[in-house]
User: Fold these one by one.
Assistant:
Number 1:
Amino acid sequence: MTIGKYSFGIGDRFAHEGVNQLKALIKAEEQFGVHFVPVWNKSNREHQIVGTEPSETRQEADAAVKALGYKDQYFVDADHINMNNVDKFIDSSDFFTIDVADYIGKTGTMEEKFLPAIKEAGRIYRHIAEKKGADNFVTEVSMDEVDYAQSPEELRFILKAIAEEKIPVQTIAPKFTGRFNKGVDYRGDLAQFEKEFEQDLLVIDEAVKEYGLPANLKLSIHSGSDKFSIYPIMGRLIRKYDKGIHIKTAGTTWLEENIGLALAAPEGLALAKKIYVNALGRMDELTVPYATVIDVDVKALPSPEEVEKWDAETYARTMRHNQEDPLYNPSFRQLIHVSYKIAAELSDEYLPALEKYTDVIGEQITANIGERHIKRLFK
C-alpha cells in the first residue's frame, strides 16, 4: 500500500466534520491544482478523552467519501500509537503513526540515543504486519514529541537503522528546532528551520538510494496545529526538490467547530462561552498533559465576566488565528485547543449543536484548511 505524494492529516475530535474536511481538500485541488490524499487521524489519548473508539473514525471517513462520491485513495491513521494501544486500531486503520519518542535517550552516542527507539518501532511494525498483513497499511515513524531536535546527521542514522529493521517507512516525523505550540504559529528562527528542513529533504533522498527505503519516503510535519510562517518555506523547498510531504493539522477542526458554534446562533455562542468558562476553572487539569506544546499566558486570558459581554463576532475574532487582528488572543486559542474534554462532557448539548449548525461550522472548517493552510503551502 503506497500513499500519494502529498497527503493531509485531518484530525477531528468529535468525528462530525469528515464531509467538510474532504470538501476543503477537493476545493484546494480545484484552486491550486494540487491533490492531497486525505488521512483522518485520531490518537488514543483523544479517543480516551472524548470516549470514542477507532472504528468511529473509520465510519466517519467512509461516510464522507460516500457522501461526496470521492473516488481517490484515503486513509485512517492510528495516530501516535505504541505497543500498549495499537491492537484496538488494527481493524479500522490503514495508516499507523508509530510513536517512539519515549524510547529516545537524551544523552550518549547516536546508537545509545536512537537504537532503542528504532528497535521498538520495528517491534511494533512487525506486530501490525503480522495482524494486518504487510501490504495493507502505510507506516510512519514519529519522534517529534521530544525535547531536542534531531540533526540531519542524526536523521540519516535513524533512517539507516529503520532500513536495518526492515520497516518500509513512507513518512518520517522528526523534531525540528523551534516551538510548535498547539493551535498557534511556529515560534523559532525561520532561517534555521529552513536550513534543517532542506537538509532533511536531501538526507531522505540519499537514504532512499543508499538504504533501499521506499522511493516515496517523505517528511511528516505535525507538531502543533498551525504552521503559517513556515508553510511558504516548506512549499518552496518541496517544489525545488520535487518531494512529497505529509501535513497533520491536529486540533484545527475542533477550534473551527468552536468558532462556527459561536457564530451560529445565540444558543451556540452561549455554549461556546460555557466551554471556555469551564475550561478556565480547570486550567491546570487541561493544560498539564500538553505542557510541552502550549504557552498560555494566564494574565492574557479574559475573565468570565468579560467573555459574557462578547457578541459572536468578538468571540470569533478573539479565537480565529489571524495575527493581523488586534482581537486575536493566542492564549485564549491555546486554552480552547486543549479543552475539548469539556465539550465531550457536555456532549448532550455539544453534539446536537454540531448537527444543528453544520452549515455555519462547515464554512469555517473548509475555509480554514484551504485558505489558511494549503494556500500558504502552495500559493
Number 2:
Amino acid sequence: MTPKVICHIMSSVDGRLLPGRWTVPSDGTKPSELFKEYAAIGLSLGTDAWMFGKATTREVFPYKFMPKGEAAGTSGKVFTGKRTSSRLFVTIDPDADIFFTSDRLRGDNILTVLGRNATSDYLDFLEEKGVAYIVTDDLYNLRDILNLINQHFHVESISLQGGGIIDGEMLAQGLISELSLVIYPGIDGLASAPSVFEYSGQPDERPAEGQSLELISMEQRPHGIVWLRYKFHKLDSEP
C-alpha cells in the first residue's frame, strides 16, 4: 500500500524556501516563533511519519561519513532499529554518507533509505547507532520506496516537509495527495532562490500535468501566517 503523502511546507509569499533570506514579520515577532507555529501545524496533521530530502537533512546532520569499504550491493536489506517513538522521521540518502549523531530527530526514530552503493561499514555504523534503514535498487522510484516504508514500518501517512527537490520529484511521480502550504509573512524576491517545487527536468516537461488542486481550507494564524490546504486531483483517473 502506498502511504498518503501530505506536502507540508512553509514558504515566503513568493514561494521561496530559504528562511534566512525572508523579510521579518511586521509585528516584530522573532521568525523562530513563526517556525514553531509551522511545526505545530505539522503535528496537527496526525501523520505516522515525516520526511526530508537529503539537502534538508544535511542542515541537521552536516557531517559526512567517510566509507572505507566497498559498496555492499545488498538490495532489499532492511534494518528496523529499535522503534520507540510514535512517529518516524524518514530521509532518502542517495550518497549513503549522512553521519547521524543520534538515532532520533526531534524525538522521533530515524529511517534512512539507501541505494546499493551503501558500503558495509556504513550499514554497520547505522546499526550501531540504531538508525533504521532500507536498501533499494532504485532511489528514484518513490512509489516503490513509499510501499517499502509501509510494508516494513507500517506507515500509512507521511508529512513531506521538503526541500523543493524531493517535493518536485513527488509531484512529478503523482504521489502527493494534499498540499499543506504555510505562508510566512515575508518576501525573498531573488529569482534563483529555491521554491516549493524544484523538479529538475527538461524545459518541455510539465511535472504537475494531469493534476489539479481543490482548496479544502484556509486559516489565518498568529503573526500574519496563512495556512492553505489543497487536495490533489489526478485528472486522468477521474470521470
Number 3:
Amino acid sequence: MPPEDPAPGRGIGAGVPGVPGPSVQPKPSDRPDPAELYAALDLGTNSCRMLIAQPKGSQLHVVDSFSKSVQLGNGLEQSGRLSRSSMARTIGALKICRRKLETHDVRRMRLVATEACRRASNSAEFIRLVDRETELPLEIIQPEEEARLAVVSCAPLVSAKTEQLLVVDIGGGSTELVWIDLTRVPRHDRARAIMRLHAGFAGEVDDPFPRAKVVDWISIPLGVATLKDQFRDVTDDAARFALMSWHFEECLAEFSPYEDAAGDSDPGFQIIGTSGTVTTVAATHLNLRRYDRNKVDGLRMTTQQIDKVIRGYLAMGPDGRRNDPRIGRDRHALIMSGAAILQALLRVWPTDRLSVADRGLREGLLYAQMSADGVLDDGPF
C-alpha cells in the first residue's frame, strides 16, 4: 500500500522551522487574466525542468521551457545527503529559471522538488539555500501529490474506450503507479474525469460529475538513478539489467489491484508510461536522430516493439549506448535501469500496447493551476 501522507500537497518546508514555504502565491481574491502566464518547475533526482505556458482553450500553449541534468541525487544512496557539488549545480540551473520567470513576468507558478529532497537528511538546508540564492518558492511535495499530478498530465491521452487505466511515472528517484477504474464514467467524459483528479484522489463528497475511481496507487522509492546505484557493483551488463528488473518486480508485490482485469487483447485496459525512459525507447523505435515530441507524445507501442528496442540496447553494450544519438548523452547511463523497470511492468501486467506520454509533473502542475483558476475551457481535449 502507498505510504501515509499526513499532509498531501504540502512541502516539507511548510512544517520545518526556518524553512520557507512558497513565497509567490496569488491571493484568493485575485481574478486571473486568461492571457496570464503560468510556470511549473519539476526538480527531480536527476533533472531540473521548467515550463512556462498560457491557457489555450482546454489545453496549454508552451511559451518557454528549460531542462538540464543536474544530478541532484548523485551519491544520495550511499550518504543519505545531497552533496555540495550537486546542490551547486542545481542552484546554477535554478538561477537560469529565475531569469526566465523574470523575463516573462510570470506571477502564477508552482515550483516543486520530489524524491531526492524527500529522502535527503539535509533537504531543509537545501531549501534554505535555494531561497537565499534564488528567492524561488521551491517546495517539496509528497508522493501522493506527485502521482496525482502525473495522472492529470496524461488526461488528453486517455482513450474513450479505456475502462481500466494504469499510469506509470518512472522518475529518477521514485516510480509512481496509479490504477484508475473508469467504468462508471461516460465515454465522452473519461479524459476530463482524469483531469478532475487534480483536486485529490478521494474526490469531493458533493462532486456532481461521474468520478474516476482510484483503485490503488503506490510510490516505489526506486527510479532510474537510485536503481542504477543499487546495482553499480555488478560488472556484467546483461546480468545487472536482469537483476534490476527482477528486483523492481519484487517491489510491485504490494500493488496488485484487479489482477485479472488486464489481458493481452483487452481493449478496455490502457497503460500510459510517462518518463524519459519511455520517450527514449519510443524515439529509438522511430529511429529519431533528432528528438521530435510531436512524433513521440501519444505514440502507442506494442510490447514486441518495446522488447526489440531493449534487446537492441543490451546488444549495443555501454559504449554503443553512449554513442547512440537516439539515446542521448544525458540518458545513456540511465536507460538500462529505466528499461529494467519498464520490462518488469510489462511482465506483471501483460498487454499488447503501451501509450507513450511526453508529459508529466510539469504539465500536471500547469493543468492543476489553470483548472483551479477556471481559465481552461470545458471543450474536448
